[in-house]
Amino acid sequence: MRKAALSVFTVDGAFAMRHDMRALWILGILAVLIMGCTQAGKPSMEYLIKPCDMARGAATEFEISASSGVVKVHQIQSYVCCANITLSMETEGKVIRVYEDNIGEMCKCICPFEANIELSNVEGYERIEIYSVKFKDVQDYELLFNSTIPG
Fold this sequence. Notes:
With 151 residues, this protein is an alpha+beta fold. The chain has 2 domains: 1-40; 44-148, no CATH class. It is built from 1 helix and 8 strands. It is globular and about 60 Å long. The N and C termini lie far apart (77 Å).
């Protein structure tokens, strides 16, 4: 009798396990599809900050171009020579915001730095805002450039 009870339990347990595995597999596929769809539309950013170069002069420059879902921004901006500038990006609605941060030091010399920014997956976004260099709690972000994304 015990064998029969165990046998029935095994059959029911195996059926339940196959059913649960199938449900987990379907849920896993749905999760991957949902995450993939959500992240496919999120912009990504690559950038290169060239070191200070006094030969560039002190002019401020901002150029933006777009092609095939990629936006390229070229910026020249004067700031302290000893800065270590990094960029970060966030989105809100149809706006892409790029923030510049000085994770280095402050010093007395000023020279122009050059930033080349490339944003991918920008379909559906209409504007880009570039915010000036923030340094710790001393200097906060200020809007430098506000431009329509060329299309």
